[in-house]
Amino acid sequence: MNVDHNNVDHNSAPHLRIADLVDIPHIQALADANFAASGLPMTMIDAIDDTILVSAGWPGMCKEFHRAHPDASRRCMESDREVLDRLGESETAQYKCKNGLWHIGIPIMVHRSHLATLFITQFFLEGETIDREYFTLQGQQFGFEVNAYLAALEQMPVFSEQKIAYGLAFYKVMARFIAEMAQQSLAMNHAKDSLREKEEYQSLVQNVNIGVYRIAMPNRFIRANKAMAEIFGYESVEELVTRPINDMYYDREEREAILEELGSKGVISDRLLHMKRKDGAVIWASMTAKAQFGADGAIESIDGVVEDVTLRKKTTDELRDLSEKDALTKILNRRKLSEVLYLEADRARRDGRPLSLIFFDIDRFKSTNDRFGHEAGDNVLKITVEIVSEQLRRSDTFARYGGDEFVVLCPDTDVAGARCLAEKIRRKIEAHDFPIAGRTTISAGVASFHESDLTETAALVRADEALYSAKSSGRNMIKIAAD
């Protein structure tokens, strides 16, 4: 996928490459997690030389056919170039490529330079009529084995407009996160260079937007720049340097740990710390520092740079939430439940402790949606989550399994204890008067883990069978799984 390099402002960001500024494996892990949770395929491509940097979930039609054929691949690139050449910062474009598949392009801009592009790649829209004759002729044109090509067509993902909107919201946040990471990395690189190149130190100190300082031991500033004062909320550098350095640490033990490491290694790099502003507000800061030693081997002074990464930390947490939590109810999603289930089952086997789960759904939920609309149905789901959450311990795990199905994982709890909790939840929901929908009930299956279970999901399967039994027996009841 290509771009017009004449549109890249190389003067504002000379020789920048996104792979040199961000943690590509970290971005790949986020992309893999989101694909596992949402099924939305994603690619990140270098805008300079079209290198594929990150890829998650490419369908076989593109990987095995379009990308494998030079003419088909060139048509994809031409489509992307025509769209991306018209994109500006913060813009997105949904378009169908010349091979007949939908894409969405999101540019990643660093200092006005288009360094990379995120793509939600290769899909059809729900309700769209797929022209099999078009793809048959296209397969013949490129010399593909037509039956295999059409079989790959049948495997192409199909998404609703709502799912595309949710996915686009996630990847817009990811694009901003990557751009901010690259910008901060660039700024930090400049600051670190200043520590190595003394002749440029003063100029950089006055202009970089990252805090730069030198301190004399044990607890006194020698100098600091304006950005350092701004990060910690002081009116001026003069005011900042009068303050004891210990006042800026949220945890004095962290300060002692840093001094100990500097004393033994001489440097620390990108250390994430809780620090305090003048007004007492707590921030996340990244610190890089180098110690200068005296003749006796003790630290005499420390040169360092400090970056306020509170926003980046918040963005990272938001991305984690998007990949691990259900968008509507804000509890864990099915993918994250699988991770927790594996860990808790392993702990239960290792420590010989009981572990049980509750699998429940909302009775006649489809009827609620049909009678009152999806907004009322969504409200029932959210209120149900609130009611259930109030009954749980901190050690319990609560996740939306899908639709109106939920799972509560209960560590250190036998099947009788989980049965009591499920009954308590059932009564609370039955007693609640839901807005618009009125009276609502649930049915649930309860099961415990056995040491003989071959998989972590065996108990989940038993609970699902018990839930089916509860539904078949009249609903609004709890059933315990048969051993």
How many H/I helices?
Answer: 17
Number of discrete domains: 3
Helix percentage range? 40-55%
Rounded radius of gyration (Å): 28 Å
Number of strands: 18
The description of the largest β-sheet is: 6 strands, mixed
What is the strand content? 15-25%
Description of the molecule:
The chain has 483 residues and is of the alpha+beta class. It has three domains: 5-184; 197-313, PAS domain (Beta-Lactamase); 325-480, 2-Layer Sandwich (Alpha-Beta Plaits). The chain is 45% helix and 24% strand. The chain has 17 helices and 18 strands. Strands 1, 2, 3, 4, 5 and 6 form a six-stranded mixed beta sheet that branches. The chain has a five-stranded antiparallel beta sheet with strand order 8-7-11-10-9, with helices on both faces. Strand 13 (397-402) and strand 14 form a beta hairpin. Helix 7 (161-196) packs antiparallel against helix 12 (310-324), helix 14 crosses helix 15 (374-391) and helix 15 packs across helix 16. The two termini are 55 Å apart. Residues 1-14 have low confidence and may be disordered.
